[in-house]
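Troubleshooting: if your tokenizer reports a length mismatch, compare against these two reference records.
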Amino acid sequence: MLFSDAMRIPPPSAGFDFLNIDVHGDTRLFLDAGAILDDHSDFSEGLHHAVSDYFQQLLTRLRSGDRDGARGQCFPLREDNSLHLGYSTVTSRGRGMGMESDELIELLEESDAFKSGLITDIRDAQLLVPRVGPDLVSDTIAAIGRHHLCEFTTSQCQKHDIEVAENTRVSGWIPGEGWSDLSYRLPVYEGKRVILVPARLVRRAAEATYSPNRLVTDLMDRVDAGNPTACNALTKLLQHPPTKANGTLHRSKTRKRLGTSGKDRARTIASHLPGAYSDFKNSAKPTPPPSQNGDTTTSPIDN
């Protein structure tokens, strides 16, 4: 059942600003770091600032050897079932990046990208660290930005005259302060609170802005377009990049030369072609958000 049906609110002609989630399960869409960065609204800028501040503090603690401090910082990173986003299919139960508070720390510390200093923000983690994909990044953004999402939910409830419950305490990250509990009046369905997310900020897993596959494709597109920087960089790395008879790259062979997996290829580019990697991070644009009436199943992603 969709949230709008559960709350008995008619859809406006222009559609809802919020993602009309399935209140009995999880909608297979994810908060996308690229969509947030590209949005430029006050909401998205505040959310991006909170995520950036959180990640910088976490990396500082890990690199200084303060593992206990890092563990304490990760403890509240529990996927919030109130959002109804993710892969659960029957009952919204949440996978929980922070169910095990050490998970994010271990994924970072075990990665060659972290050891070599390549990780500077959450985009790097999604591109370079094994097992950190759109789902974990979405969980993390949602947990850090709970205050922002609750404020958005409150505004949507006022806009659509949705009934809300008494104040409930919600933990979120405040830049410069850390984790903090604030009170919000949120909608409730079958005894459980619901937190809404802006529909414009979610994507399917296969359409994540910062995916290894998109990074590699972007590099090859630049080479085939004759970009001198990209051409020189790839030639320096591979010596003789595989090409077809028409002079364009043989893409499957180029991928194999760059690495055995998506994350492996991304690490090769980040390590040996930092200019190309930085260009992608700074210029990658999100795909359009999926239709709220469309299919929300996901395709395999290249990790």
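Reference record two:
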Amino acid sequence: MGLKAYQKAGQKCRKNALTLFTQHNNLDSEDMEDKIREIAEWIVNAKSVVVFVGAGLSTESGIPDFRSPGGVWDKYDPEDFYFQNFISNETAREKYWQMATEMYESMKDAPPNAGHFAIAELERLGKLDCLITQNIDGLHFKAGNSEKKVLELHGTAMHVTCLSCNKRYERDDIQTRVAAGQKAPRCDTCGGLLKPATISFGQSMPERETAEAYRRSEACDLFMVIGSSLVVHPAAYMPVVAKQGGAKLVIINRDETACDGMADIIVNGTAGPIMAAILEKMKQRIHL
């Protein structure tokens, strides 16, 4: 599906999500309505809105949360996939690619949901300073966010890079090689090790993206957490940095988070329908 088709689907997706939110909201309706209205008002009045997204948003698109029961880490031992093992041992590389292929299969055709489309709409309306994501599935780009607005702290599964010459490959091209029997593919230019462009255990965080995420978090006046329990560091420090810089903090998540105690507004529930409702209120406020 092309970008325009996804964006058209997004309008329908947000509308359906808003209907579900209205029909199935199980919290006190007046309290929820007040929270939605206030968040929308904050977005309208904010000079700099930073959105921070975690795995909870991706699960609404059918992508498993790999840390939850039944996820990948129930089948594999995470300690087997440390970066040092990957670069030093061919057997470890083969096992890594087996695991990475299973993960990729679960996300390559996943569609963006109402939450992704709502965040993309914030950018279109000029209200998004940046999107900081822990997710590696590329769904924000499918929804319509631009690369200049997205900071992928944990990399992306949509591409593969050579660890020697940094040549970048489309993921599907390398997966074709794996399917053909290459258990641990190598670069066709320099013979270096190929690895999905994600951050593995023990691998350094991307310097530019991490530094920029801290800078944007510190400078914003509204920081929104969507679908993250805020337990994976250093990414989970971003809301703390934002609050220390004077920003309002909104947390939208199904369960409690590590930063609930410092949040200005907490909305517990499904992120997509909640974001669709916030976007609708925001558009009413600015007469769109």
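Descriptive notes for reference record two:
- The CA atoms of residues 57 and 115 lie 7 Å apart.
- The chain is about 45% helix and 15% strand.
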